[in-house]
Amino acid sequence: MNYYDSIVIGGGPAGLAAAYQLKIEGAKVLILEREARLGGILKQCIHDGFGLIEFNKVLTGPEYADYFVNAVKSTKIDIMTKTFVTDLIKTEKGFHVTIVNSQTGVQILSCKTIILATGCRERTNKQLFITGDRPAGVYTAGTAQYMVNIEGLLPCNRCLILGSGDIGLIMARRLTLEGAKVIGVYEAKDTASGLARNVQQCLLDFEIPIYYRKTVIEVHGRERLKSVTVADVDEQMKVIYGTEKEVVCDGLILSVGLIPENEIAEKLSVAIDPKTNGPIVDGQMMTCIPGVFSCGNALKVFDLVDHVTANARIAAKSALKYIQKESETDG
Amino acid sequence: MQNQMYGKRDIYSSRRRNQQRAKLEKKLKKVIDGSINCSLYMDSVRITGQVDTWQKVVKAGQIAAKTNFKEVINDIFFKENSQNIQFNERLASTARYENWDIAIIGGGIIGCAIARELSKYDLKICIIEKEYDVAIHASSRNDGMIHPGIASPLGSLKSKMNIRGNALYEKVSKELEVPINWCGSSILFKTTSSKLIWPFFWIKAKLIGLKGLEYMPKKSVYQREPHLSEGVKWGVLCKRAGVTSPYKMTVAYAENAIENGVTLKLNAKVIGMKNINKDATLINKGEISEIYVQDQTEKYTIKPKIVINAAGVYSDLVAEMAGDRFFSIHPRKGEVVLFDKKKADLVNGILGFMGDRSSKHTKGGGIIKTYEGNILVGPNALETFERDNYETNRATIDEMLRLKLPQIKGLDMKDDITFFTGIRASTYKEDFIIEASRQLKNMIHVAGIQSPGFASAPAIAERVEKICDKMYLELTSQKMVQDVNFNPNRKAIPNFKEMSLEERNKMIALRPEYGEIICRCEEISKGEILDALHTPIKVDTIDGVKRRVRAGMGRCQGGFCMPLVMEIIHSELGVSMDQITKKSGESKIAAHFTKDRGENK
Amino acid sequence: MDEPMNRMICIVCPKGCQMMVQRDAKSGSIKVTGNACEKGALYASEELLHPVRTLTTTLKTDNPIHPRISVKTSGAIPKEQLIPAMQFLNDFCVETPVEIGTVLVENLLGLNVDVIATMTLKEGE
């Protein structure tokens, strides 16, 4: 059975930074990535603004990822891509990680520590209880970003963006540059949830209006989206009925929040903070299960990838300490 | 004179029927609207008039249903009424025609189950389905519950079909490889005094032949369902209740039918029929000689020996085309909310709450753990004049959740992953219609199949098989001949998630694509998606894949896997990425490629 | 006499400083307040006189698995040139493989900036 000091689940910015740190300090590390390429969500974040803290340079997402992918590859860390973790089990000396891969089939790997770096997913229109039809044309900003930047598909010609999260703002600019009409960004709160500079360079630069205290309550169109119903909301974010208006569009892009992904962590009964949706950790990023660490957006949603990198390093260092301590006690 | 036609079957004399009619008319004029008139149509009653709301139309129909007439034809108008039925399009024969022994109209669970039963015989059978796939309407929009049969009225056809259907499903499940979880259902009561009705349950079960019914004292109720909120005093456990995937079952029936020689015509809409005897009566019967079909490319004619009307919520319109509309469908919408599998442990089976129903016309409108482990709340019951408007409504969903969520401790609105609507094809008599037409020699009506229609499907198919057998003999003087090559077994797409480690390894060694997980929430592999694209029914849509292997049905609702499924459809079937649709027609996922078109080019 | 005050959000870093920018009509000198660093002041005066942006986008490729490659301009270009640049780049198709940093389009629209790959694209990866 393959044995590792640490298995890092997730090959995005958090996983790469953690794995690299562990490796250069002498640990035997494996990165498990479910996609074909390392880099995580950075692969589709082709805009710039990354790396100012980490590199004192303005980089795009793929460039930021490239640095860490190269760093990791140069240290000969074991990497398995297109590999999916199906189970985690606590054992006497550590953990068993069950993985699936089309080349090697199902394998059970053994390790002393686990770094959870599984990132986050987006809240959907269903979770907001946006009712009405179920047409094509309603996508989360991340899905739209994948379609535009990776697949070269324009998801809509004329769209409305619900929520002013950073990906939503970035997508407003991106869709505009690629020739779609962005009617406006609708935000239920009275301030934008994304960074001020993104409001400037993604919306104001292109004269895209942002409407506050407004939300989308219904979508219409049996096959393809034809229109949405928007309405005002009060301070408690409750819909004010009587203010409904129909807006014609063939796309609704949602940027209404990110949720840390911890379904695999739950297999180990890692305690989850209901506020952040991430694991409850100590100051050293260790969860309530000794030997299991969490970092990056799987822990809590960060604004900046630079902070994710820094956070992952803390997790890695604390995992190293744990590994050393365990080896000593093992004699 | 009309009375002669009914012969012995008519239990009323013409005079008595007229008295009934007049009495009903008087009542409707008084209670609903002065404009309402009643007339007789065969042994059904037809009500006409004009009112201002759909609620009044339905109410009038329901009052009329309380009489002893066979069925209610409700032709009352209201301002937005879609009830305005006109099928004067009695087309001349088209250039191209096809001969079929059996033409089944409708590719839902009922049409597909009938097709599969009849595919045992050496017959030329086609299913005519107006949508791009099977199971598009009610058959994919329900809770997948196989009811035990205790809730249907004693003596009703529903009750009979449900009991028999439930029993048949065990075999069907094995043959079609669609697993059922016989999880049992609990009917829960919140008053102690209601315990008095337990003997009636017991007697009813005896009468209808239902086994596995148990009285549950409070303690057993909470042992079975520990997360139930306080207040339940006792319950009835029906062991013969199960859950399965309703769309997978429908697809399986259709696939097995096709494998046994049935032709499935998709995107094919029946637009008219020809009755060779326009003045058909119960004695001098008519016959459907031609069915006119419109598909994506042409209009053509089907010349059928036997026509089976399994058109669900449209079944009265199909009956009208045949000149044999003796009932009306009043569509009844039901909204359902699905919750994250993470909460699966909160519920162990099917829960129904007595005295807590959002409407009397729902069965088990409660809380169910689906086959896949999602907790499902609903459905509610909302009368609507629109037959296929599946829009959900926030206010009615909120109301339903307000009532149901407090029943389970720890179930929260924020755990929802999706919600949808189904529409029940109810008649005013609220029972199934499964019978040979009384004024057409070669038509069988299978209508009003609402809950527990899914649970009854195998029994309905069996009943139709018998009717068909008799009809075929009368029409052709020949018996239907068994097809020696009939194969009742259908191979399901392997379910990777449900395999043991050893099975998984064997599968991946054989088919490496099974080792690549595409849908992370539901753990669906590329192999399963590829297999879905190569089943007997053409699948090239995102929702088509979803209905077969559930990719995109998890908590992220396809956010991650939809583009990946598109890539698989593209590379496997050669469909251009910009042309892939969610559900056929105008539902393209993308508007177009970037850099190819659009305002900046 | 001073020209009117301009309110500005700095886009140089994620901090997003709120700045006030004012130009002296006579001397042409620009006064910036609210900035947390020198880069901010520089950005503010540029933004007032001739706003520029770095363009990040994609180009078509000849690779069927990766039909787009991410790119950026090597320097900032005038804001009003963003859309013309997008239109111009629509017709380019990149031959793969490509290494990160490779110049794919030289001297974009005569603006003295190149378009460079921000990712490495190899066959079958």
Automatic annotation (TrEMBL), chain A:
<dbReference type="InterPro" id="IPR051691">
    <property type="entry name" value="Metab_Enz_Cyan_OpOx_G3PDH"/>
</dbReference>
<protein>
    <submittedName>
        <fullName>FAD-dependent oxidoreductase</fullName>
    </submittedName>
</protein>
<dbReference type="InterPro" id="IPR023753">
    <property type="entry name" value="FAD/NAD-binding_dom"/>
</dbReference>
<feature type="domain" description="FAD/NAD(P)-binding">
    <location>
        <begin position="4"/>
        <end position="306"/>
    </location>
</feature>
<dbReference type="Pfam" id="PF07992">
    <property type="entry name" value="Pyr_redox_2"/>
</dbReference>
<dbReference type="InterPro" id="IPR036188">
    <property type="entry name" value="FAD/NAD-bd_sf"/>
</dbReference>
<keyword id="KW-0560">Oxidoreductase</keyword>
TrEMBL record, chain B:
<feature type="domain" description="FAD dependent oxidoreductase">
    <location>
        <begin position="101"/>
        <end position="464"/>
    </location>
</feature>
<dbReference type="InterPro" id="IPR007419">
    <property type="entry name" value="BFD-like_2Fe2S-bd_dom"/>
</dbReference>
<dbReference type="InterPro" id="IPR041854">
    <property type="entry name" value="BFD-like_2Fe2S-bd_dom_sf"/>
</dbReference>
<dbReference type="Pfam" id="PF01266">
    <property type="entry name" value="DAO"/>
</dbReference>
<dbReference type="InterPro" id="IPR006076">
    <property type="entry name" value="FAD-dep_OxRdtase"/>
</dbReference>
<protein>
    <submittedName>
        <fullName>FAD-dependent oxidoreductase</fullName>
    </submittedName>
</protein>
<feature type="domain" description="BFD-like [2Fe-2S]-binding">
    <location>
        <begin position="517"/>
        <end position="570"/>
    </location>
</feature>
<dbReference type="Pfam" id="PF04324">
    <property type="entry name" value="Fer2_BFD"/>
</dbReference>
<dbReference type="InterPro" id="IPR036188">
    <property type="entry name" value="FAD/NAD-bd_sf"/>
</dbReference>
<dbReference type="InterPro" id="IPR052745">
    <property type="entry name" value="G3P_Oxidase/Oxidoreductase"/>
</dbReference>
UniProtKB/TrEMBL annotation, chain C:
<dbReference type="Pfam" id="PF07892">
    <property type="entry name" value="DUF1667"/>
</dbReference>
<dbReference type="InterPro" id="IPR036593">
    <property type="entry name" value="CPE0013-like_sf"/>
</dbReference>
<dbReference type="InterPro" id="IPR012460">
    <property type="entry name" value="DUF1667"/>
</dbReference>
<protein>
    <submittedName>
        <fullName>DUF1667 domain-containing protein</fullName>
    </submittedName>
</protein>
